[in-house]
Every structure is written in structure tokens, then in C-alpha cells.
Amino acid sequence: MDRDAVATHIPRLRRYARALVGDRMLADDLVQDTLERALAKHHLWRPGSDLRAWLFSIMHSVYVNQVRARRPIAVPFDGSRDCGSTAEGAKRLEMRDLEAALAQLPAEQRAVVLLVGLEALTYADAAHALGVPIGTVMSRLSRGRERLRQLLSGARSMPSLKVVK
Amino acid sequence: MAAHVTEAELHAYADDVLPPARRNAVEAHLAGHQQDAERIRAWREQKAKLHAGFDPVLEEPLPERLAAMRLAPQVPRRAPLLAAAALLLAGIALGWLARGLTPVEPSPAAPTIARQAALAHAVYAPEVRHPVEVTAADHAHLVKWLSKRLGAELRVPSLAPLGFQLVGGRLLPGDAGPVAQFMYQDPRGQRLTLFVTRSSTNRDTSFRFSQEGRVAVLHWIDASLGYALSAELPREELAKLATRVHAELNP
Question: Which residues of chain A are within 8 Å of residue B51 when distances are taken between CB atoms?
């Protein structure tokens, strides 16, 4: 496995981790743990298979272990970010709503919604990354998208504290 | 009348991955089911929001700790190999330096390629777990990948009639750019490596022999590519193999 090849995926691993975890530092911790594990286990990668899907599968197992280790951290929204009625301020509000809605999704649904909707993994690759059958991916996708739709349409009633698992 | 449309098909439609054969059926269904059409619109909007919200992460400079991982050198973990790798790098550096200092272009007989090939052989031939980066099982991918990196169409000679099976290949740094190393193995576990690099000269040469410690090397230039065949084998045996390699490369 080529270290350079792994490096090209770092930005996308960060994007996914940020959306999954919410907090910037925690997300980069997750990326770092994922990269370390990938480099230590590079012999498990099947040459010719999709490196990105493999990296997402490693990130998923690292993430699940962290969640299992029960390290819930409450991340208060930074009030200073919601400023003003400018276009920039409106964008930030929208982002806040999106982050809050994502945080309220069950973790397993959030992962599928993000892998498919943000990272454009095929359903099969998402199933592989999460270690579940494709039918499970489809049902989580369906429930996750529906829940997100409801959350985003009623976003104004969001609590101002989210729990990052 | 549209055939039954599943929930999964609605998602596939929203994700633009529905097979074309089913697209009409889904569109017919949506025309008659406003609620589903609205859901698909909302799902697509979710995707757009996710990208608008998180794509900027792609443009952020990497934090120090992640950038450092990217730049860390890839070194084998075991100490003897570490030393061998250092030797390999030193050899390459020396070769490169010598190149810079020599006023005339090194002749094709210059043992740089032989020395590099022998070092690379010494580093990777004893490897038990990771002798190659891409195994022979992925033959087409292996050839395509290394050809792309070298910028030349490579061929992998078959040495099976002489008892050597292809194990796979890897990419290495060389003083003239990337180098491909193909590894073969016979039933006794004897390993043979074929080192292929772009040549700085266009002159073809005949086989040249060089002994680097226990590793015997036969090297030659053919059609702008430099080849070096290395093994811990007697010269005559290696010559037989090199003749076969040459014949395979020039059918």
C-alpha cells in the first residue's frame, strides 16, 4: 500500500469525520487514529480493492470503539457564531441547524446518510465500510433521511446543546 | 401503469444510481405520488446542504499532526530491514551524487543500475510478509500501475518454464525516477528480482554481469529501458534466466 495514496484521502476522511463527530478536534483525532491503524494494518488491504472504502471501514471501527468506550462529550454551540442578519450570519445559522440535526440522528443512520450523501460511496461500499448487509444500509438510509428531513423542517425548535457520542 | 417501485429504488433515483431501465418506472410513479416526489426533493436538498456545509473542510490546510503523518517516511519496522533500507537509500543518494559530479554521462556499463538493483534485491527478497506491494493475483492492475508510474509500457516476462513464478511487484525510487521491481520465486524459495527503470541513454547494450556481494546481477538496456535481473544464483543460471527475460520482452 502506497503511503502517498493514503495521503490523498486525508481531506475526505476529515470531511466525513467532521460531519460524523461534529467537533473539529475530535474529528481530527478520529482521522489520526484511522491513519495510524491503516498504516499499521496495511497488509490487510487487498491490492486492487478500493482504498477509500477500506479507509472508511477502518474509520468506522475506530469510531465504534470510541463510542463503545463511552466518551460522551457535550459540545455547546458557540453562540458567537450566530451573529447578525448578514448573508454570512444566515449561512452560519443554516450550518448550525444542519449540525444539530445530524447530531440528533442515531449514529448508525448518520454514518449511512453521510457515506452515501456526502462521500458518494456506493451502497455496496457503504455496506462494506460499515460491515453490514446492503439491505441494512438501505433501511438505515431510508430512516436516516426521513428523520433528517423532519429535523431540518422543524429546525428552529432544536435544543442548543448537542451530545457528541 | 407503473410497475411496483421500492423504497430502495427511490433512494437510488435520488442518488442518480438507478439503472436506466428502471428510471421510467420511477418517474411514472413519482408523477402519481406527490409525497414521494417531495421526499426525493428533500433528500437531494439534504445532499446539497451536506456538501455546502462540509466541503469547505476539503480546502482547509491539514493540521500539523495529520500533515506530519503524510510526510513521515515509510520505513520497514524490523531493524535489519531498516538498515538495509538505509543502505538502499544511501546507495541511491550516492549514485545520484556521483551522477552530479561526473562531467560525462555515465556509460551504460556504469554499475549504478546493478548496484541499485542488488540493493533492492537484498532489501525485499528476504521479506516474508510483504515481498511485494501488488501481488501477481492482480496481474493486470500491477502492470497497468507500474507502467503508468514509469511512463512506459511494461511487460512482465513469464519465467514459469524455468520454474520461477511471479510473486508480484513494487514501486521504488531510483536516480532516474520511479523504478519497478518484479519478484519471482521458484519452488525452493529462491527469489529473483527484475528491476526496470527508464534509461538515460537510448543505446541498447548486451548483458553485463556484476557481482554485488552474494547477489549476482545481469543488466542491459533495451528500447530505452534499463533492466537488471538479480538473484543469489551462479552466473550461468542467471544468464539462462536473463536470456529468457530478454526473449519474452522481444517476441
Answer: 118
| C-alpha closest to that of B224 among B191, B192, B200, B250 | B200
Q: Which residues of A touch B12 (CB under 8 A)?
A: 123
Neighbouring-strand partners of residue B158: none
Q: Are residues A14 and A47 in the same domain?
A: yes
Q: Quick one: closest CA in B to A120, which residue?
A: B15
Bridge partners, residue B222, by sequence: B225
Tell me how many domains chain A contains: 2
Q: How far is B13 from chain A (nearest CA, A)?
A: 13
Interface size, chain A vs chain B, as Cβ–Cβ contacts under 8 Å? 97
Asked if residue A121 is part of any domain, the answer here is yes
CB contact under 8 A, A15 and B70: no
Whether residue A22 lies inside any domain: the answer is: yes
CATH of the domain at A115: 1.10.10.10
Q: Which residue has the cell 433501511?
A: A139
Q: Which of B43, B74, B130 sits opposite A3 (nearest CB)?
A: B74
Domain that holds residue A63: 1-73
Chain mean pLDDT for chain B? 81
Same domain, A106 and A151: yes
Q: Is position A161 within any domain? A: no
Distance from CA of B142 to the nearest CA of A (A): 9
Contact B54 A19 (CB under 8 A): yes
Q: How confident is the model at residue B80 (pLDDT cuts 50, 70, 90)?
A: very low
Between CA B101 and CA B89 the distance in angstroms is 18
Judge whether A162 lies within some domain. Answer: no
Nearest partner of B222 among B240, B243, B193, B192, judged by Cα: B243
What is this model's ipTM?
A: 0.84
Range among A43-57, B155-169, B200-214 with highest mean pLDDT value: B155-169
Here the CATH number for the domain that contains residue A30 is 1.10.1740.10
CA distance A126 to A128: 5
All three cell numbers of A59, joined, read 474509520
> What pLDDT sits at residue B202?
67
User: Is 70 exceeded by the pLDDT of residue B169?
Assistant: yes
Instruction: With residue A102 as reference, give the H or E element that holds it.
Output: helix A87-104
A35 CB near a chain B CB, below 8 Å? yes
Q: Report chain A's mean pLDDT, rounded to a whole number.
A: 81
Mark which of A30, A50, A73 sits at the end of a domain.
A73
CATH number of B109-249: 3.30.200.100
